[in-house]
Amino acid sequence: MTLQAATILIERLQTETNKKSEIRAYEGFHEILISLKNRELAKAEIESIEAKLESFNLDSKPVNTRKFIKKIQKEFLRYLRETYSLLSKGYYTMLCGGLGLSFGLLFGIVFLSSFERSLGIALGLSIGMVIGLLIGKSLDAKVKSEGRML
Questions:
Q1: Distances (CA, A) of 118 to 104, 109, 110
Q2: What's the chain look like in SS3?
Q3: pTM to 2 decimal places
Q4: Alpha-carbon distance 101 to 15, whole Å?
Q5: Are 104 and 125 in contact (CB under 8 A)?
Q6: pLDDT tier at 84 (50, 70, 90 boundaries)?
């Protein structure tokens, strides 16, 4: 399935549904396809991407469409990340934000426990989240400047 055919199929499926959750899922996948279509990729890369799209069998009619599209989108993004080092918007922000929360919780329990227990945990979570988001935003900016962001 070519990028153009996949884009047309997703647009058609998006217009056929009335559920907002399905429409959002289609929009996310549609944005990925459009950004790939606008990139200058080698012929071998395009053929590889189209082969991956063909393996997803987008023409099928699953019972839970939103879950099916989200699963395909997740697999496709993982494929693009591993094969071509292409990342989605906010990838590092989400990753580092979660890590910041984890380490902030640990920091709050261990080092800020001299305050009241819940205050130490809350401060640790806040500080960890802010630091994680700042690191994630800087990494996302770096990826965008390198041209690897979808």
A1: 13, 9, 12
A2: CCHHHHHHHHHHHHHHCCCHHHHHHHHHHHHHHHHHHHCCCCHHHHHHHHHHHHHCCCCCCCCCHHHHHHHHHHHHHHHHHHHHCCECCCHHHHHHHHHHHHHHHHHHHHCCCCCCHHHHHHHHHHHHHHHHHHHHHHHHHHHHHHCCEC
A3: 0.83
A4: 39
A5: yes
A6: very high
Exposed, middle or buried: residue 124 (CB in 10 Å: 0-12, 13-18, 19+)? buried
Per-residue pLDDT reduced to its tens digit, 24-56: 999 999 999 999 999 988 999 999 999 999 998
